[in-house]
Design brief:
heterodimer, A: alpha/beta, 6-stranded mixed sheet, 9 helices, 30% strand, B: 697 residues, alpha+beta, 7-stranded antiparallel sheet
C-alpha cells in the first residue's frame, strides 16, 4: 500500500491533536481527533478492500486480424461491500492495454467498461491480467493488485488488400468465377464473415441474423480445383534463408492476403506447409485457412554449419507429401533456391520470395505480381523478388 | 514545475462548504460570532476571487496576504502576552483570520487541501473551547462536508490527462461514496472515541485562566454568598432559619444545621481535572450546637503575579506527608459565592484578579463574586499518605491543632459515651475515623427533608439518638463531633462533589444540588485527611485510589448497564401495574386465562412454527430444505441455479445423499404436490437434518 503525502500530513495532525487532547483533556478534541483517525482508517481500509476479491472478466471477439481495432468489455463485479475509486489497467492477450477509472462498484451491480483495443500479434493467445489500483474513499492511500483475467484471442494474420489473383496453372482471369456458385451439385461447407467484394447472393441470412453482421456462405469445391498455397515454415538465421521471424510473419501475411484475394474471386484455396516437421494442409474454407495461418509457427533452422536441421521440411518435400504431382502451386518462401525443384519438374509454380528488409506488402500490392507472375507463367518458375 | 490550477467548481464549492461549517462551529461561541460572520463572508469572496484569478500569477495579492498574515500574527502574539494562561481565544482568532486570508489565494488543488486541513485545525481549536454537547451538532456536518470534499476531489482528478466527464453524471457517485465514507468514519470514530483510554492530562503547562477582571469589587476577605447574605449587626445563628434553594448555606460564614430543603438542579461549574476529587470551599472549626462557624475569620491576602500565586498556609495546615499533584480548571457557569473551589490542598492558584484571600483553614476566597464566565485553575497536592504512616503509633497532636479542633460545646454525656464506645481500643486517629464512618453508615438515613430541629436541642445529639436521619452537613457534623469527643481533631468542610463526567466534553459538570459537606480529620504526622461521613456518597479515599486515566469503554458499558437496569425495572413495574389492574377487573381469572392461552399458542408454534402466521406447516417444510441448502453450501456443495432439487440431491456424494433425499422429498411433496408434511415426516426431516449437521449423511 502506498501512503500519500496527504495521509502523512493528516496522521501527523491527528497525532498532534491527540497530544493536545490528552494534555487539555478536552473531550471534543478527542472527538475531532477520532474523526481524523476514523477517516485515516476508512481511507486505508477502503483502499485495501477495494482491490481484493473483485471478480473481473474480459470479453472480446474470438477472432480478429492483426492490427484490427475491436471492442473489449471488462466486467467488474463485487460480491460483498462496495468498492471505490478503482483504476483498472487491463492487458488482454496480444492486444493493446487500456486504463479506466471506475468510481464505485456496488455488490450485485457489475460495472462494465468498454474500450477499443488493437490486435497485436498473430497467433492463438490466452491469458491476460488486469491491475486494479484503488485510492480508497479519501484518496490518501493507494493499494494495487494484479488479477489474472483469462481470455482467449485468435489473431489471424493481417490481410493486405490485393487485386483479385489467379494462381499459375489456373483458368484465365477473365472467366467469371462467381457464376460457379450457381453450378449444380455445389454444396455449402461453411460460412465466413462478409468481406468487401462478396456477392450479397451468398449471404447466409440465418447466421447473419444470429451474429448481427453479414455472414457469407462458402461452397464446397473439388479439392483438385483449389489453388495450393505452399508456405515454407522454415525460419531462422540460416544462410539459406532471408531474414528471421519477421520475414516469416510477412510470408504468413502474404499467404493470407493471396488466399483472401483468391477467395474473393471465387477460387477455393488450400494451404500446405510443415507443422512441427510434418506436412499439413488446411482449406478450402476461408475460415479454416485463416485459423491454420493464425496457428502456424516457424520451424527454426540451426545456424550455419550445423546442418539443415533434423525434421525441417523444405517446400519440395511438403509438396511431394501432400500434392498430386503436377499440381500448380504458389510457394511462399524465404529460400530462393527452394523453387528450383518446381522448375526442374515443370510444375506450374509461382513463387513469392521474401528477403529480410523487403516490403513484401508493397510488392504484392504492386501490379507486377499480377501481370508478370501468377496468371501468366504456368510452366516455369517465376521468382518474384523484391529489388 | 508550475501546477495546474484547479478548474473544478465542484471541488472548490465542496471545500468551501467544509471551511464555512468549521467557521460556523467557531462562530457559535459568543466571543467569536461577529468575527466568524466577517471571516465567513471574506472566505466566500476569497474563494470567488481565487477561482477567477486561478490562472494569474497574483503577485500583488500574495504580497497583500503575506502582509495581512504578519498583522494577524502580531495580534496573536500581543494577545498571548496579555494573557499567557489562556491562549484559546487568541488561537481561535488567529486560525479564523489565517483561513480567511488564505482563501484569497487558493488557485491549485494543493492549496484547497491545505484549506481543508486548516479548517480541521480551526474546528479542533473550537473543540478545545467547547464546553457543552451542542458542539457535536457542528462536528457531524463538518465531517459530512469534509467527506464530500474528499470524495469530490477523487471524482474530479486534477490530472489534466484525465478525460473530463459531465459534472452531473459524476455527482451521484460523489454522494454515494461520501455517504459510505461518512458512515464508516462515524462508526470508526465512535468506536475509537469510546475505546481510546483517556490518560492523565496536563503533562505540559497549559493552565487556563479567563481574561483579567478589570472591574474588581473588593470584598476584603469577607465571605459573600448571594443566597445567604450576611445581615450587618445580626448574629446569623439567632435568626430564624430560611432555606434558599438557589444556593448552599455551607458557603456562608455560618453553616446552619436547622435548614431543611432541596437545592435546585442548576449547572454551576464545569471542571476539567486530571482526576476526580471533592471541590472544597470552606472549612469550619467551631461547632455551636446548631451550626458551624469559623472561630478565626481573618484572612491573608496573596498577590497574584502574572496570573499565578503559590500558596503558603499556617501551621494548622501542614504539608501532607505523601501527596499527588492534581490540576483542575474551573469554568463558572452560574453566579457563585466568592469561594475559590479546589481539591484539598491547593498549592498554586491561577486566578484573573490581582490577589486572593486565604483563611487559616486553607479556604481560598476571591476578592470578587464568581460570575459566569470566569475561568481559573488550581494545582493541588492531594494527600495520599502511605498506609504505614496512617498506622503510625505516634498520635501526638500539636497543641495549636488540639486547641482549635477538639473544642466542643456543652453536650449531653451520651454523645461522648457513644464516641468512646465506637472508638474503644482503636489506637490511631485514622482507625477511629474509619470506625465512626462505619458507624454512621449503619442505622442512619440520608434525607434532605428531615424533621425540623426542635428548639434548644443539639443538632448532632438529636440526629444521633432521636431522628437518626439528616442531610450531609448533619452527618458530617455528627462525625466531626464524635471524633472530637474521641480525642481526634476534626472539622466540617463544605464544597461540591465531583459532579457528573460528560463523555463528550471531558468536563465534570457540577450542579447546585451537588453542594456537599464532609469531614477533614487530622492524622498526626500525616496532615488533614478527607472523610466522607454521609452514606451513599463516593469517598475521597476512593478518588485517591483511582488510577489516572479514563477509559470510556468502561463508562459506556456501565451507562448501557444502567439503562438496561432502568428499562428492565420499567418493564417489571409495568407488568406489576398490569397485573394489579387485571386483579381489579371484573374477572380476576381473565389475566391468568390470557397468559395460559398465550403460552399454549407459543408452545404450538414451537411444534408448528407457521401457526401464528396462518401458513399451516408450510414453513415447516420449506425451512428445513433451506437449512439443508445452507449447510451443504458451507461444505462446498452449493446448489447451482438451474438444478432441480432432485438433480441437486442426486449429484451429492453418496454419504450425504440419503439424508438429503429425505429432506428433498418432503420439500417436493409440499412444494409441488401440495401435501403438507405429517408429524412423522417432520420428525424424519429433523433427524436427517441432524445427521447432515453432524457430518454423516
Amino acid at each position: 500500500m502506498k501512503v500519500t503525502r496527504d495521509a502523512i500530513v493528516v496522521t501527523a495532525l491527528a497525532a498532534f491533536l491527540f497530544f493536545v487532547a490528552v494534555n487539555l483533556q478536552a473531550g471534543w478534541m478527542y472527538a475531532v481527533d477520532t474523526f481524523l483517525v476514523g477517516v485515516l482508517v476508512a481511507a486505508a481500509a477502503s483502499a485495501v478492500w477495494s482491490v481484493r476479491g473483485l471478480q473481473i472478466s474480459r470479453s472480446a471477439p474470438g477472432e480478429v486480424h492483426e492490427g484490427d481495432r475491436f471492442t473489449v468489455t471488462l466486467e467488474v463485479r463485487s460480491r460483498r461491500l462496495p468498492r471505490f475509486f478503482l483504476e483498472l489497467s487491463d492487458l488482454g492477450p496480444a492486444m493493446t492495454g487500456h486504463r479506466a477509472r471506475v468510481p464505485i462498484v456496488w455488490p450485485g451491480r457489475p460495472v462494465r467498461v468498454q474500450y477499443r483495443a488493437t490486435a497485436l500479434r498473430r497467433g492463438l493467445h490466452a491469458g491476460g491480467t488486469t491491475t486494479v489500483a484503488s485510492s480508497g474513499l479519501a484518496g490518501w492511500f493507494w493499494s494495487r493488485r494484479t488479477v489474472r483475467v483469462p481470455s482467449t484471442l485468435t489473431v489471424l494474420p493481417r490481410i493486405w488488400r490485393l487485386a483479385p489473383l489467379r494462381a499459375a496453372g489456373r483458368r484465365d482471369s477473365a472467366e467469371p468465377v462467381v457464376a460457379r456458385a450457381a453450378r449444380a451439385g455445389l454444396e455449402v461447407y461453411g460460412v465466413r464473415d462478409y468481406r468487401e467484394g462478396d456477392s450479397l447472393r451468398h449471404v447466409h441470412w440465418r447466421s447473419t441474423a444470429r451474429r448481427g453482421q453479414l455472414v457469407i456462405r462458402e461452397y464446397e469445391r473439388d479439392a483438385q480445383e483449389a489453388s495450393v498455397l505452399l508456405l515454407d515454415t522454415r525460419s531462422g538465421p540460416h544462410p539459406l534463408l532471408h531474414g528471421g521471424e519477421e520475414v516469416f510473419e510477412d510470408l504468413v501475411r502474404a499467404v493470407a492476403s493471396v488466399a483472401d484475394a483468391m477467395t474473393r474471386t471465387g477460387q477455393p484455396v488450400r494451404v500446405i506447409g510443415s507443422v512441427n516437421g510434418t506436412p499439413a494442409e488446411a482449406g478450402p474454407s476461408h475460415r479454416v485457412v485463416m485459423r491454420w495461418l493464425a496457428a502456424i509457427e516457424p520451424f527454426p533452422l540451426p545456424r550455419w554449419g550445423e546442418g539443415e536441421g533434423e525434421g525441417a521440411m523444405p517446400p519440395a518435400r511438403v509438396y511431394e507429401a501432400v500434392c498430386v504431382p503436377g499440381t500448380p502451386v504458389v510457394v511462399f518462401t524465404a529460400d530462393p533456391g527452394s523453387v528450383e525443384y518446381f522448375a526442374a519438374r515443370d510444375i506450374p509454380c509461382t513463387a513469392v520470395v521474401a528477403r529480410g528488409g523487403d516490403n513484401l506488402r508493397a510488392q504484392l500490392e504492386g501490379s507486377t505480381i499480377h501481370d508478370s507472375g501468377l496468371t501468366r507463367y504456368e510452366s516455369r518458375v517465376t521468382s518474384h523478388e523484391s529489388r | 514545475m508550475r501546477h495546474q490550477p484547479e478548474e473544478s467548481i465542484a471541488v472548490r464549492l465542496t471545500v468551501l462548504v467544509a471551511v464555512l461549517v468549521a467557521v460556523g462551529a467557531v462562530g457559535v461561541f459568543e466571543e467569536f460570532t461577529s468575527q466568524a460572520l466577517l471571516a465567513g463572508g471574506l472566505i466566500t469572496v476569497g474563494y470567488w476571487v481565487s477561482y477567477r484569478r486561478r490562472h494569474a500569477r497574483n503577485v500583488w495579492l500574495k504580497v497583500a496576504v503575506a502582509l495581512a498574515i504578519v498583522l494577524v500574527a502580531r495580534d496573536f502574539l500581543s494577545s498571548l502576552l496579555a494573557n499567557p494562561y489562556d491562549p484559546r481565544i487568541a488561537l481561535v482568532r488567529l486560525f479564523l483570520w489565517l483561513q480567511a486570508l488564505h482563501s484569497l489565494d487558493v488557485p491549485r488543488r494543493r492549496d484547497l487541501k491545505y484549506s481543508l486541513i486548516s479548517s480541521v485545525v480551526l474546528i479542533a481549536v473550537g473543540a478545545a473551547y467547547a464546553r457543552d454537547a451542542a458542539f457535536g451538532l457542528w462536528l457531524i456536518p463538518f465531517a459530512a462536508a469534509a467527506a464530500v470534499a474528499l470524495v469530490t476531489m477523487q471524482m474530479f482528478p486534477d490530472d489534466p490527462a484525465a478525460a473530463p466527464a459531465p459534472v452531473r453524471s459524476r455527482m451521484s457517485p460523489v454522494f454515494q461514496a461520501s455517504a459510505a465514507l461518512l458512515l464508516s468514519v462515524m462508526a470508526g470514530a465512535v468506536l475509537l472515541f469510546v475505546a481510546v483510554p483517556r490518560v492523565e492530562g496536563y503533562r505540559t503547562p497549559g493552565i487556563t485562566v479567563s481574561p483579567w477582571l478589570a472591574r474588581q469589587l473588593q470584598l476584603q476577605g469577607r465571605i459573600y454568598n448571594p443566597a445567604y447574605p450576611d445581615a450587618p449587626g445580626q448574629e446569623i445563628s439567632d435568626a430564624p432559619p430560611v432555606f434558599n434553594p438557589t444556593g448552599y448555606v455551607g458557603f456562608s460564614t455560618y453553616v446552619d444545621l436547622r435548614l431543611r430543603g432541596v437545592l435546585t438542579h442548576d449547572l454551576v461549574l464545569r471542571v476539567r481535572t486530571t482526576r476526580p476529587a471533592f471541590w472544597r470551599g470552606l472549612a469550619f472549626d467551631e461547632y455551636t450546637g446548631s451550626g458551624w462557624r469559623m472561630s478565626d475569620p481573618a484572612v491573608t491576602e496573596f498577590q497574584i503575579v502574572r496570573g499565578r500565586v503559590p500558596l503558603r498556609f499556617t501551621a494548622d495546615e501542614p504539608w501532607p506527608a505523601g501527596s499527588e499533584p492534581l490540576i483542575q480548571t474551573f469554568y463558572i457557569e452560574a453566579p457563585q459565592p466568592n469561594v475559590i473551589f479546589s481539591a484539598y490542598r491547593a498549592s498554586e492558584v491561577y486566578f484573573p484578579t490581582s490577589g486572593i484571600d486565604v483563611d487559616r483553614y486553607a479556604g481560598l476566597r476571591s476578592p470578587v463574586p464568581l460570575e459566569a464566565g470566569i475561568i481559573y485553575s488550581v494545582i493541588s497536592r492531594v494527600p495520599s499518605p502511605a498506609p504505614a504512616l496512617l498506622r503510625s503509633a505516634d498520635q501526638r497532636v500539636p497543641p495549636e491543632i488540639a486547641d482549635r479542633y477538639l473544642r466542643l460545646p456543652r453536650m449531653s454525656g451520651r454523645v461522648a459515651r457513644l464516641a468512646e464506645e465506637i472508638t474503644a481500643g482503636l489506637p490511631t486517629a485514622y482507625r477511629k475515623a474509619v470506625a465512626v464512618q462505619r458507624f454512621l453508615s449503619r442505622g442512619y438515613a440520608y434525607t434532605l427533608q428531615a424533621p425540623p430541629l426542635p428548639s434548644g436541642t443539639d443538632a448532632v445529639d438529636e440526629f444521633l439518638f432521636e431522628s437518626r436521619q439528616g442531610a450531609c452537613e448533619v452527618f458530617a457534623s455528627a462525625m466531626a463531633v464524635l471524633l472530637r469527643a474521641a480525642g481526634v481533631p476534626a472539622r466540617l468542610v463544605t464544597g461540591y462533589t465531583t459532579g457528573r463526567y460528560n463523555l463528550l466534553t471531558g468536563f465534570y459538570e457540577v450542579y447546585n444540588s451537588d453542594a456537599h459537606a464532609w469531614v477533614e480529620v487530622y492524622v498526626p504526622r500525616v496532615g488533614w485527611i478527607e472523610f466522607e461521613a454521609t452514606p451513599g456518597f463516593a469517598s475521597p479515599e476512593e478518588f485517591a485510589g483511582q488510577r489516572p486515566g479514563r477509559w470510556l469503554a468502561a463508562n459506556a458499558a456501565s451507562w448501557i448497564a444502567g439503562r438496561t437496569r432502568v428499562a428492565w425495572s420499567a418493564v417489571l413495574t409495568g407488568a406489576q401495574r398490569l397485573h394489579a389492574r387485571a386483579l381489579r377487573g371484573v374477572d380476576p381469572s381473565g389475566g391468568a386465562v390470557a397468559v395460559l392461552a398465550l403460552t399454549l399458542v407459543l408452545l404450538r408454534r414451537r411444534r408448528a412454527p407457521g401457526l401464528l402466521w396462518g401458513e399451516g406447516s408450510a414453513r415447516g417444510a420449506e425451512e428445513p430444505y433451506a437449512q439443508m441448502l445452507r449447510l451443504l453450501a458451507r461444505r462446498g456443495y452449493p446448489r447451482v441455479g438451474p438444478q432441480t432439487p432432485r438433480e441437486f440431491t442426486d449429484g451429492l456424494p453418496a454419504a450425504l445423499r440419503p439424508a438429503a433425499a429425505t429432506i428433498t422429498n418432503s420439500f417436493e411433496q409440499w412444494r409441488y404436490g401440495g401435501r403438507e408434511p405429517s408429524a412423522a415426516d417432520a420428525e424424519s426431516v429433523a433427524a436427517a437434518l441432524g445427521l447432515l449437521r453432524r457430518g454423516r449423511g
